[in-house]
Design brief:
CATH topology of the largest domain in chain B: Glutaredoxin
Helix content of chain B: 40-55%
Number of strands of chain A: 9
Largest interface: A-B, 57 and 42 residues
CATH class of the largest domain in chain B: Alpha Beta
Oligomer: heterodimer
Distance between the termini of chain A: 51 Å
CATH superfamily of the largest domain in chain B: Glutaredoxin
Distance between the termini of chain B: 27 Å
Shape of chain B: elongated
Number of helices of chain A: 17
Order of helices and strands of chain B: HHHHEHHEEEH
Strand order of the largest sheet of chain B: 2-1-3-4
Strand content of chain B: 5-15%
Strand content of chain A: 5-15%
Strand order of the largest sheet of chain A: 6-5-9-7-8
Radius of gyration of chain A: 21 Å
């Protein structure tokens, strides 16, 4: 197994304390970054090929560089800790087991984009992570790490998947329902409270201290040509050892399932894998020799998303699984755009009746038609994320759906 | 959306925060560039204090923010964690998303319904427990799982659920 970087402290029971974090080299990168010009920090992150680890995979350094240079007012840093993509649980580990890694990443990012106020938006259900992280923030204030030009507000959400979408998150942070906003303007131009805002995922920022400490070339060298570093893969479903596994982004899906997660459980025979959270198009058992980086999965017709891997063994019914996934998207559609609000509801009903053996002859083609027409027509990527499973589950396992439809 | 729909515990507390709570509201409001940013945290406080977010609570909170009650209502109804009806003393929320479903969450929901004698979305006669199903709580490595009030309960079995229920008074 390769070196653990992001998860190196997870086994220490006291890793959430400042003392333990410092004992393992914590805040040395912040000391170093204070001697660097803000533009030099951004440049280093650009060269590291760090890409956003929340879902979209956007190059982090490039995102930081979009803050207008001539902007005179405040700039905000918002951490997306609204982890909610089904099959993903890695940010919870950082918040609970290594919270200072996020705080240090925030300090460095804030210096890079000349920001004095940061918000950490933690999903409402994460009560323990919220308490642990808030405790770490208090410790960082007491130690004079925070409050010396950079303040952190820890904010609790209240239950809504859509707030993981960065502009939905901003709406929610502003005290509104979490409706995504039309882009452009992108948050880096006009974000939280109308000001330029960087929204970064928890794990993304936790990478930043390591990049500053050990250099962009080292970080870039850990990964593939277009994405640097390691990342934390959440593996669950029908595997023998579900859990969070850190690996270079060049790891293959096969290695994750068999070498890290102990292989397929239940029947022991692999049927399919959701490789990047429930919004990622499904892969069949023959498609797992792909590298788990942004471009590797894009080339395979899926997406790495939040790197939540859900494994199906032979005994899993794909139509039944799609009924669960379709219910989720119908429940979580925020209702703002008609194609998403209506299609997620209708498709849920159709998939449910197919799974229950009451489907109609033309249901499958109707779903594929509706799904393909709606993609790309909405304000945010939520509906595109729903379309991924609708289309891929049906196209790749059509015979299984057809077998359930009365002749 | 799944919500508790059976009223069991009438709330008699007058709708007003204490002086300390009002100071906390002002502190929270001061943290944001626009005080309205504190609306979600203050609604959490209100629910903890008054049991649930009634229309009266919405009006009260709206007054603290100089917002219209309609805006607060729009926010309260958007999120799953604000209860608009009285809830049980404990809320049991079973994840029924993909990984938990594959690990048998459906059987556990049936078990809970049978043990508690209620359907999903309902509260027991004695006001002890509200049962809900929820979407992914992001603890899939320990599926099937559920949230009991603030706590995550992991790697559930029917026997483990029975022990957890015994501890809820």
């Amino acid at each position: 197994m390769s070196e653990k970087i992001l998860s190196r402290n997870f086994e220490r029971p006291d890793a959430y304390t400042l003392a333990a974090y410092r004992a393992t080299g914590g805040y040395q990168a912040w000391d170093k970054a204070q001697g660097m010009e803000p533009a030099a920090i951004t440049e280093e992150v650009k060269k590291s090929n760090l890409r956003g680890l929340g879902g979209a995979g956007f190059p982090t350094g490039m995102k930081w560089s979009f803050i207008p240079k001539d902007h005179a007012g405040p700039v905000y840093l918002v951490v997306n800790a609204d982890e909610g993509e089904p099959g993903t649980f890695k940010d919870r580990y950082i918040l609970e087991r290594d919270p200072h890694a996020l705080i240090e990443g925030m300090l460095i990012a804030a210096r890079a984009v000349r920001c004095a106020l940061g918000f950490v938006y933690i999903r409402g259900e994460y009560v323990t992570p919220w308490r642990v992280f808030s405790g770490a923030v208090r410790e960082a204030y007491d130690a004079g790490l925070l409050g010396q030009g950079f303040d952190v507000v820890v904010h609790r959400g209240a239950g809504a998947y859509i707030c993981g979408e960065e502009t939905g998150l901003i709406s929610s942070l502003e005290g509104k329902k979490g409706w995504p906003k039309v882009k452009p303007p992108f948050p880096a131009i006009k974000g939280a409270f109308g000001m330029p805002t960087i929204v970064n995922n928890v794990e993304t920022l936790a990478c930043v201290p390591h990049i500053v400490n050990r250099g962009a070339a080292w970080f870039a060298g850990l990964g593939t040509k277009t994405q640097g570093g390691t990342r934390m893969y959440s593996v669950s479903g029908r595997v023998n050892r579900p859990g969070v596994y850190e690996a270079p982004v060049s790891v293959t899906l096969r290695q994750l399932i068999y070498d890290h997660a102990g292989g397929v459980s239940a029947t022991g025979r692999l049927k399919a894998v959701v490789p990047g959270g429930s919004s990622a198009p499904i892969l069949t058992a023959d498609e797992i020799d792909v590298t788990m980086d942004v471009d590797g999965l894009r080339n395979a017709g899926s997406m790495i998303g939040s790197a939540g891997v859900v494994v199906f063994d032979e005994s899993v019914s794909v139509p039944d699984a799609l009924a669960v996934v379709a219910r989720f998207y119908a429940h979580e559609s925020c209702g703002q755009c008609t194609p998403c609000r209506e299609s997620t509801g209708w498709i849920e009903k159709q998939v449910k009746r197919i799974a229950e053996g009451k489907g109609r002859k033309d249901d499958l083609d109707t779903i594929l038609d509706v799904a393909s027409r709606g993609a790309g027509t909405t304000i945010c990527a939520f509906y595109d994320g729903a379309v991924g499973p609708y289309i891929s589950y049906i196209k790749k396992f059509r015979a299984e759906f057809e077998a359930l439809i009365p002749k | 959306m799944t919500r508790a729909t059976v009223a069991r515990t009438p709330v008699t507390t007058p709708i007003a925060f204490s002086a300390e709570q009002l100071a906390e509201v002002r502190r929270l409001q001061s943290l944001y560039p626009n005080p309205r940013g504190a609306l979600l945290p203050v609604l959490h406080m209100a629910q903890d204090t008054f049991g649930y977010v009634s229309l009266e609570v919405e009006e009260y909170v709206a007054g603290l923010f100089s917002l219209s009650p309609a805006h607060v209502h729009e926010v309260v109804t958007f999120y799953t964690m604000y209860f608009q009806q009285p809830k049980g003393r404990h809320v049991v929320s079973v994840c029924h998303n993909l990984s938990c479903h594959l690990a048998g969450a459906g059987t556990l929901v049936d078990h809970l319904k049978q043990r508690l004698g209620i359907d999903v979305g309902e509260t027991t006669e004695d006001g002890r427990i509200t049962l809900l199903t929820v979407e992914c709580l992001c603890a899939c490595e320990a599926a099937p799982m559920m949230q009991v009030d603030d706590r995550y309960e992991l790697n559930l079995t029917p026997e483990k659920i029975d022990r957890i229920l015994e501890g809820l008074q």
